[in-house]
Design brief:
Blueprint (H helix, E strand, L loop, with lengths): L1 E6 L4 H16 L3 E6 L17 H8 L1
Parallel strand pairs: 1-2
């Protein structure tokens, strides 16, 4: 199955969950594309938080 995910938020929890879902889908042999729109395009400027290791999830997705 091919999955497209649109990320329109710069909220750390939303970003973390988007990439967690994408990674889980890739491990299940699905094709996954994450589209960054609006505030989601700020992904590179969002720092990790105590609860959400965004940089780790992004690196794992690649």
């Amino acid at each position: 199955m091919k999955i497209g995910i649109i990320l329109q938020s710069n909220n750390p929890e939303h970003i973390w969950n988007t990439f967690r879902f994408g990674i889980t889908s890739l491990k299940a042999n699905h094709g996954v594309t994450i589209f960054l729109m609006s505030e989601g395009a700020e992904l590179d400027t969002i720092a990790d938080t105590e609860h959400f290791d965004i940089s780790k999830k992004v690196a794992e997705y690649k």
